[in-house]
Amino acid sequence: MRNDIERVLIDEAVIERRLDSMAVEIERDFPDGTLVVIILLKGALVFAADLLRRVPRPLEIECLNVSSYEGLESSGQVNFLDRHFPDVKDRHVLLLDDILDTGRTLHAVSERLYQEGAAVVHTGVLLAKDKHRAEEVEADYVGFEIGDEFVVGYGLDYKGRYRNLPYVGVLKLEAAN
Ligand code: XMP
């Protein structure tokens, strides 16, 4: 797998240090009470697992399956793939995704959470691409700002692969086939 990576963008130690500080930010911002965390599958799985173990407060964890990306491109449409939606009525929600790109995913899921009666929705992403977004949305917690290039690893995939790399890296063009 390492041979398919053009360069490591964010290594494991740097990710770990940033997760420590993100956990402190989250702990500081939320009022007392149990928080509902919604993890967007599959990309946010690794990030969320490592982040949430650093947050020392009562949490309920839910997962949502959404899809919007096809290969290297955003399809422009966000699809909810689950039959059931978590009960978020009057709850404080922390929505976690792997990466903020066009903004369509966070925008669509946040809207849906409010439609379902969530009291407050905060959003957190490991990565945010520094670019103009199709939807006006920014995350409340951002691990790292990156350039507008396709990245894999630490949960992010290309055609289902590379999610288990312990770092975030840029894929070689010849590996994207
Ligand atoms: P939007 O465009 O809705 O994108 O903000 C969010 C979703 O798109 C996927 N995505 C990527 N996946 N490398 C990936 O592996 C990338 O560089 C990338 N950019 C966007 C991702 O699934 C994210 O949840």
Q: Specify the helix fraction band.
A: 10-25%
What kind of sheet is the major sheet?
6 strands, mixed
| Approximate shape | globular
User: Mean pLDDT, as a whole number?
Assistant: 93
Count of discrete structural domains? 1
What's the level 1 CATH class? Alpha Beta
Query: How many helices does DSSP assign?
Result: 3
> Uncertain regions: pLDDT < 50 for 5+ in a row?
none
Largest sheet strand order = 4-3-2-5-6-7
Strands, count = 9
Q: Give the helix/strand class.
A: alpha/beta
At CATH level 2, the architecture is 3-Layer(aba) Sandwich
Radius of gyration: 16 Å
Pathway: Purine metabolism; IMP biosynthesis via salvage pathway; IMP from hypoxanthine: step 1/1
Catalytic activity: IMP + diphosphate = hypoxanthine + 5-phospho-alpha-D-ribose 1-diphosphate; GMP + diphosphate = guanine + 5-phospho-alpha-D-ribose 1-diphosphate
Domain Phosphoribosyltransferase: 15-159
Cofactor: Mg(2+)
Task: Please provide a brief summary of the model.
This protein has 177 residues and is α/β, with parallel strands linked by helices. Helix content is 21%, strand content 36%. The longest helix is centred in the N-terminal third of the chain and has 18 residues, at 12-29.
